């Protein structure tokens, strides 16, 4: 995926960082399926589900697609070395303003300490970055040290693996809406994650649910079997 196309997705999600009082919807270009983006949650304090993710981190952690930085800050406050990564300059500024460390980088470009991170986070739909979860998981694998983990937010059973074009719809409080540019995106559910992870050299250690949201813990250690869903 070209940097130009990734920039389009940055431009689209950047509006959610500027217009937090507006409603934002992610719309599939092929079937019109849409979901409301939890923009206010992104800008707010860390919610209980985030605490459950932070508790699974015991070493240096990369928060990919950090947005306004609530996860990066929660990790930092837990005493961990945490760095947020986002291609959006606005996201990086917001994260730093909250007290977190963040770098403006493309996830697929060179990043600091590659191969030495204990954990990589893909939360808030960031499994869609680049439009190909196999490639994205492979990138995470390269960033992790042996035995490291990927914590990823997943869809409930249903969509499997979806890859295609998407765009952001922005609706102002007073009415009226507009569509942003098309960009490649993806969705991945808790059933399809095992096959996608395996294709990238990862193993699903556990799939778990917190506050009606689904998450997976993937590891570079291929010796263990997945544990039952909790």
Could you describe the 3D structure shown?
- It is a single chain.
- By secondary structure, this protein is an alpha/beta fold.
- The chain has a domain at 45-161 and 186-219: Vaccinia Virus protein VP39 (Rossmann fold), CATH 3.40.50.
- It has helices at 3-18, 39-43, 48-54, 70-77, 89-97, 133-143, 193-199; strands at residues 23-28, 34-36, 61-64, 82-86, 102-104, 117-122, 144-154, 161-171, 177-179, 183-188, 203-210, 213-219.
- The strands form two sheets. Strands 5-4-3-6-7-12-11 form a seven-stranded mixed beta sheet. Strands 1, 2, 8, 9 and 10 form a five-stranded antiparallel beta sheet that branches.
- It is globular.
- Mean pLDDT is 88; it is low at 1-8 and 224-230.
Would you spell out the secondary-structure blueprint of this structure?
Layout lengths: L2 H16 L4 E6 L5 E3 L2 H5 L4 H7 L6 E4 L5 H8 L4 E5 L2 H9 L4 E3 L12 E6 L10 H11 E11 L6 E11 L5 E3 L3 E6 L4 H7 L3 E8 L2 E7 L11
Parallel strand pairs: 3-4, 3-6, 4-5, 6-7
Antiparallel strand pairs: 1-2, 1-8, 7-12, 8-9, 8-10, 11-12
Q: What is the CATH architecture annotation of one domain? A: 3-Layer(aba) Sandwich
Proportion of beta-strand residues: 25-35%
Residue windows where pLDDT falls under 50 for at least 5 positions: 1-8, 224-230
Give the overall shape, derived from the CA principal axes. Answer: globular
CATH topology of one domain: Rossmann fold
Q: Care to count the β-strands?
A: 12
Order of helices and strands: HEEHHEHEHEEHEEEEHEE
The chain-level mean pLDDT equals 88
């Amino acid at each position: 995926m070209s940097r130009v196309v990734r920039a389009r997705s940055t431009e689209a999600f950047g509006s959610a960082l500027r217009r937090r009082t507006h409603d934002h919807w992610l719309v599939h270009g092929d079937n019109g399926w849409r979901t409301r983006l939890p923009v206010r949650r992104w800008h707010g304090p860390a919610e209980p589900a985030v605490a459950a993710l932070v508790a699974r981190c015991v070493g240096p952690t990369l928060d990919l697609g950090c947005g306004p930085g609530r996860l990066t800050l929660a990790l930092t406050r837990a005493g961990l070395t945490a760095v947020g990564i986002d291609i959006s300059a606005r996201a990086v500024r917001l994260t730093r303003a909250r007290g977190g460390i963040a770098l403006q980088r493309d996830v697929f470009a060179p990043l600091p300490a590659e191969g030495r991170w204990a954990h990589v986070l893909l939360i808030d739909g960031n499994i869609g970055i680049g439009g190909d979860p196999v490639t994205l998981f492979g990138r995470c694998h390269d960033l992790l040290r042996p035995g490291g983990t990927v914590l990823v937010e997943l869809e409930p059973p249903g969509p499997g693996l979806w890859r295609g074009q998407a765009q952001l719809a922005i609706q102002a409080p007073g009415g009226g809406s507009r569509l942003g540019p098309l960009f490649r995106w993806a969705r991945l559910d808790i059933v399809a994650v095992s096959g996608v992870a395996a294709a990238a050299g990862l193993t699903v250690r556990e799939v778990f649910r917190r506050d009606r949201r689904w998450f997976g813990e993937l590891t570079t250690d291929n010796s263990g079997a997945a544990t039952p869903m909790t």
